TrEMBL record:
UniProt key word Transcription: yes
Species assigned in the record: Feifania hominis
PROSITE patterns, A to Z: HTH_ARAC_FAMILY_2 (PS01124)
Protein name (record): AraC family transcriptional regulator
Family matches, as SMART domains: HTH_ARAC
Span of domain HTH araC/xylS-type: 160-259
A Pfam family it matches: HTH_18
Keyword Ion transport assigned: no
Key words, A-Z: DNA-binding, Transcription, Transcription regulation
InterPro entries reported in the protein's UniProt record: AraC_XylS_family_regulators (IPR050204), HTH_AraC (IPR018060)
GO molecular function, one term: DNA-binding transcription factor activity
Length: 263
């Protein structure tokens, strides 16, 4: 079975939602921006639906006619991607990367929920794509991707207010109130909203909603021996969870699991 990234949920039954680990880690290896690199293969042309996510995802194809794309953080189902047959790498970025990645576009005030041409952000990314087509070993390809983004993001600024707000939201799994978050950051609600929205692409409330959904989605597709309950993801009750999940995914959890079970 081919595996995609967690932020990609197929609208067809032959692509599986993937595991991307928990989102409690803001920092990966030497920086605060890159969290993981996953690889998947598609046996046929596939339409993939984007679902809410507070992380950014870069999609690279190993050779072929596919321009690399960057999926910006989103709090609602937005659009679908038509992916040709082939092998792909998905590069996962933390929410702190938004400031570094999207400010280079200049004047783009609203980048959330958009699929952007990655070449507008990284003009030389075509060279990386070409190098990946010649990498037979995935470990070598991951090293090449890590090295590329290490040079791009190494000296990027991190807004301390955004860092504090993101940390508090993640530690609380999205349950911290707006008033509590504002007090922790020492700002008014309006000031925090404007800073957070401008740097991350989502409001703190939308960020919390996407985070809870992604964590619940991960838990569903990677079950454990502990029974699933909506309360562990700070949903009020089962009805609230089902309503939120369908709003984010377009289907109920049981329908998604049936879809994945048929893959």
């Amino acid at each position: 079975m081919s595996v995609s990234h967690l932020s990609l949920v197929s609208v067809q039954p032959f692509l599986m939602a993937a595991s991307a680990g928990t989102y409690c880690e803001l920092q990966h290896s030497r920086d605060h921006f890159l969290t993981e690199i996953s690889c998947f293969e598609l046996a046929r042309h596939t339409q993939v639906k984007l679902v809410p996510d507070c992380f950014s995802s870069l999609l690279l194809r190993c050779g072929g006619d596919f321009d690399p794309v960057m999926a910006a953080p989103a709090d609602a189902p937005e659009r679908s991607l038509d992916l040709p047959q082939g092998a792909y790498y998905c590069v996962r970025f933390t929410p702190l990367s938004s400031y570094a990645l999207y400010r280079v576009l200049g004047g783009m005030r609203e980048f959330s929920g958009r699929v952007l041409d990655a070449r507008a952000i990284f003009p030389d990314i075509g060279e990386l794509c070409r190098s990946l087509s010649g990498e037979p070993v995935r470990a070598q390809a991951r090293r090449a991707i890590n090295a590329y983004f290490d040079t791009k993001l190494r000296h990027s600024p991190i807004d301390p207010v955004v860092h504090r707000a993101i940390s508090d939201i993640i530690v609380s799994n999205g349950s911290i109130t707006g008033a509590g978050l504002s007090a922790a950051c020492g700002l008014s609600s309006r000031q925090l909203y404007n800073i957070f929205r401008g740097r991350v692409g989502l409001s703190p409330k939308s960020f919390s909603r996407a985070l809870r959904f992604q964590n619940a989605l991960y838990r569903l597709v990677k079950p454990t021996d502990v029974p699933f309950t909506p309360y562990e993801f700070n949903y009020y009750d089962q009805s609230h969870f089902l309503h939120e999940f369908k709003a984010c995914c377009g289907m109920l959890p049981a329908q998604l699991l049936a879809l994945l079970g048929g893959c």
